[in-house]
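Hi there. Long-time user, first ticket. I'm pasting a complex I've been working with (about 360 residues overall). I'd like to know whether the download I got is complete or cut off, because the file seemed smaller than I expected. Thanks.
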Amino acid sequence: MNSEVSYLLLKNVVDKLQLDLINEADLNKEVNGCYIGDLLSNVMARAKEGDLWITIQGHQNVIAVALLTEVSGVIICENMEIDENTVNRAKEKEINLFKSNLSAYELVNKLANLGV
Amino acid sequence: MQKYLMDLHIHSVLSPCADITMTPGNIVETAAQKGINIISITDHNSAKNIASALEIAKEKDIYLIPGIEVQSKEEIHLLSYFASLDDLNNYSNIIYNNLPNIKNDEEKFGYQIVVDKKDTFVKKEEKLLLNSTDLSINRLVDLTHKNNGICVPSHVDRSFGLIKNLGFIPDNLDISFIEMSSNKSITHYYKTFPYLKKYSFLKNSDSHYLNQIKPTMEIILPKNISFKELFKYFKTHNNSEYIL
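Hi, the file is complete. Here it is re-exported in full:
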């Protein structure tokens, strides 16, 4: 029997969720969960490695928190403004950063359908 | 030399969340009764009671530092203190113009009352002051400095606090003061966040009711110091050592 384990990669998610690429670092990262949060102190404590993090917070500290928590990528949802410094830091620190006009709820629905 | 007691974060009736008894006159009177010499009234996103408050404070020989508490687009509260009413008004006008045009619902949020120097009702502020301006924290710090003021993130680890919302203090934020939560000690902060040692701490009551006003800091300065000298001293010294 062929027991194949299927991994969900960021590049598939980007495609399926039609995310806008703000910074592309490594889209071959595995997505193995999702975390939603805008209070960064809480995200620092709760987000797990490999999670795809959805937030409306566009401040540059998002990139530091993404680095710290080792999430696979960050989606700024609801078309919220992303600070210029945030984009620069994402490039510098090689963090996958995306934007979407969908709400966190709508994005999570789609993620759930993908098996996340 | 003289010991001066301070409390630099008090909300007046202009803040919808403050009690209806928080008129500048009552605030100044309460401060005087408690032996507080230096206060600041810092309403949410508006400074429309400060001109009256300055007159009232002067009569009672209380120093009033013109101030305001602004909510940034990251939903962070930042106190700003100024050397003059003009500087404060320059800043607060920008803030007001960057607040969304949403009408206050008194039933839900409370009254927003402007008073005159006799402490009597003048008008209600129609725009809801409990909102975020569309200005970033960096922009607010910059605007405060442009108007010769001091910008101090409020209660950094509580709701609407810089550390609570953004996880830590961004390295590119040009501040030297932070406000601690009044129920915690400096030791607690140094232990939890060692990097905060480089900042000067302020402790204030963040009063919304008269009985919350209390001396939270004390400094030793020459007797009858001028306001100008007082502000200069405050701006250039590490105030952590004055916390009560």
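A couple of notes from our side: Helices of chain B lie at 24-33, 50-59, 85-97, 106-109, 137-146, 162-166, 186-192, 227-236. The CA atoms of residues 28 and 57 of chain B lie 6 Å apart.
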